[in-house]
């Protein structure tokens, strides 16, 4: 498994917990610098949706040639989808090499799909490990003041999962980060609003897989989570990209 840097935060006022707004050029370059130093191997671009991100990535790579491989959604062989049926269908398409899907500690809809895609030799990219910032380490919806209207609906779920994490002396963010070991993608795609968020991600993931008992508890608890909580396109945000993109 390798890390790739998501670029939505580099070009948009993006994320449920984003109170800062659109990053500056300098802030964006600092995040790319940190990703490079931490061993991230690629950046992921969506030219049609990510605002300033394409320009900023190009400018950075002009002065840091070869720092990252650039993954471009929509190019031949690379699809990105929220739809499990579309994702599993791609397993049988010879023209598809890379499939990007959302998955995280709250959302297991793609778990079986990821395993199937890997078995047939597709490169699987997993996004939304932190569910656009909803899994930001707090159990209080009042602390989310960014885009979206999902806070009240998610309150009970966040409180429950915060309690699960606390029982093992960790935050919800650490739980979310280390859940990547259960997903086991080829590429874990993660964005950031600050460089230090990438530091914490790598620190948490390096601890290793979660305790088996905690994994079992989570797998049972998340079965009853409402679709709206785990589907950002239903949140009423300013940047709802639609079912075929993130």
Report on the architecture of this protein:
It is built from 10 helices and 7 strands. With 246 residues, the protein is α/β, with parallel strands linked by helices. The radius of gyration is 17 Å and the shape is globular. The chain has a 7-stranded parallel β-sheet with strand order 3-2-1-7-6-5-4. The longest helix has 17 residues, at 151-167. Helix 2 runs parallel beside helix 9.
Task: Give a short overview.
This protein is α/β, with parallel strands linked by helices.
Give me the secondary-structure topology.
Blueprint: E1 2-6, H1 8-11, H2 25-37, E2 42-45, H3 53-63, E3 69-72, E4 78-80, H4 84-89, E5 98-102, H5 111-119, E6 123-127, H6 151-167, H7 172-178, H8 180-183, E7 187-190, H9 195-207, H10 212-221
Parallel strand pairs: 1-2, 1-7, 2-3, 4-5, 5-6, 6-7
Helix pairs in contact: 2-9
């Amino acid at each position: 498994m390798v890390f790739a840097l998501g670029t939505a935060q580099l070009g948009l006022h993006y994320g449920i917990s984003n109170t800062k707004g659109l990053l500056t050029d300098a802030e964006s370059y600092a995040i790319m610098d940190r990703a490079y130093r931490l061993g991230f191997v690629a950046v992921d671009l969506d030219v049609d949706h990510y605002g300033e991100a394409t320009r900023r990535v190009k400018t950075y790579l002009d002065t840091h040639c070869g720092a990252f491989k650039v993954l471009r959604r929509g190019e031949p062989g690379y699809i990105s989808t929220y739809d499990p049926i579309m994702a599993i269908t791609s397993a049988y398409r010879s023209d598809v090499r890379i499939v990007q899907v959302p998955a995280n500690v709250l959302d297991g809809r793609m778990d079986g799909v990821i395993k199937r895609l890997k078995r047939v030799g597709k490169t699987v990219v997993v996004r939304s490990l932190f569910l656009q910032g909803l899994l930001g380490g707090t159990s209080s919806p009042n602390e989310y003041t960014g885009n979206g209207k999902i806070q009240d609906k998610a309150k009970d779920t966040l409180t429950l999962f915060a309690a699960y994490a606390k029982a093992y002396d960790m935050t919800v963010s650490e739980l979310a980060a280390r859940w990547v070991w259960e997903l086991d993608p080829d590429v874990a795609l993660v964005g950031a609003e600050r460089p230090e968020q990438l530091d914490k991600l790598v620190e948490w993931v390096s601890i290793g897989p979660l305790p088996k008992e905690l994994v079992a508890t989570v797998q049972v608890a998340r079965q009853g989570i409402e679709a709206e909580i785990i589907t950002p396109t239903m949140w009423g945000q300013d940047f709802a990209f639609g079912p075929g993109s993130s």
